[in-house]
Task: structure prediction
Amino acid sequence: MDKWAVPTQYYVEGLLERGVPVLIYAGTLDFQWYVKFPWCKSEWRVLMKRWMNSNWVANQLWTEKLQWTGKEAFNAQKMRDWDVDGRVAGQWKSANGLTFLTFYEAGHMVRDSLD
Result:
């Protein structure tokens, strides 16, 4: 590893220990591959689409592995729905300054899904 390269989780852990609130968010369609096979029914494509959308899961897992004094309280929280205009827009959990949030039907650029 280069001298200047430091894994992000160390920065996040340091911020949390200093009392700086941190929001980690991910679109549930991030890291998605669209595969269209002409012989497949649409139900198969939907199933594959859901199976392949797992990058947000990796983001949630690394937030739960952070080493900081609020880890136990954060990990004890369950994901809860949040809604916008009466529609469930994603899920979130939060404790001691760390919040993890998912946006349903959003890709890597979550902003594109908010319009």
